[in-house]
User: What shape does this take?
Amino acid sequence: MANINLLPKERASNKDLGRLYLFFKKIAFLFFVLFLIVTGVGGAIYFLFNNDLNNTKAKYEEASSKYKSLQSTEASLIFLKDRLQKSQEIFAGRNLEESFDKQQRIFFYAPEDVGFVKSKSDYSSSELELEFSGSKSMKFLLENLAQNSDFNRLVIKELTFLQNKGYNLLLGGF
Amino acid sequence: MFKKYSSVLIPVLSTIFLLVLIVFSGNFFVGEIREITEQKRQMSLKLETVEAKIATLESSANNVKQFVSVASYAVPEKNPSLLVTSQIRKLAAVNDILLDSFIVTAGSQNSQAENQQQLLMAHQISFVAIGAGYNEISGFVTKLNSLLPLLRLDSIEVNKANQNNIEAKIGLSVFSAPYPKTLTLVDESLGGLTESEQGILTLLETYNAPEIDINPDVSIETGPRENPFLLSN
Assistant: This one.
């Protein structure tokens, strides 16, 4: 059967436009809903985050005022740390004390008849001169020192023998 | 033509308008939320620092103040040569050592130093100590190390003065440094005493401190001091 359209041509195009009108109306509605969702969700998140930020700010202000009440303790702590750091610097520079201490320890390993002659310590050198009545005493000391790990390096700078006095030993490198 | 499409034009324009609105509002909220998140992150970091600092200060409040005097004896603000001389004299008297030829040389502050607060100034003291034997002299020199204010042995020359006495020419350095004047910023971190600092403090406590009081005022002045010379009516 033949499809006969008896309506005028203008009416047919009006029907298409009507469909287009409905389509865009639906899209516009959909976008409107989407806009509401975006602004609603965005606004809610903004509100929550802003609230959280304000809470953190309030906590910070509270902590800051509490911190201010502890400033005298902070002044003491900073003072203490400063003096301790400077004390540490002084301790670090105490090198001569160690070499003088080593000189003293020599006497722990020396025989009883050893005699002190002189000693000198400064930043350039450290020396100790001892006197022995006989070679046995000197040998005893040197053997003891050789076996001891406290003295990794010692230099015999001078060894003198005098008939009436005995041996003089000048040690260095403490 | 325009008349024909005029009925469709309103929903099309509304759609475009709403689309633009969605994009703009979305963009606006994303930007704002991002900014707030960043602010929150920074504020949280500051809060964390201040809270850690408060915890440090609260935990050290009890023991810090009691150590202030021993630390101020260790490295005083001003030249401690006279104080050290008096300490050495006391030590010598206890150990039967005679002292002679004291020379005190004050160190000069280097004005070119970058940070005067950090500067440790050295002042020199030299003297002659006379004792009965090497053990007496060496014992005395060793004990010098445990005196406050702290000192450092720079040179020592020990000789036999005569048959009965040993003489030591001793050169020492004593130190002074200006007190720190500034506190940290509120959100600047500050740690408590480290283990090594605690160790030094324990060591200093065993040292022989002078009997005079040089306890520094480390509190912060909040207002002008009263003039003590004004007569009250």
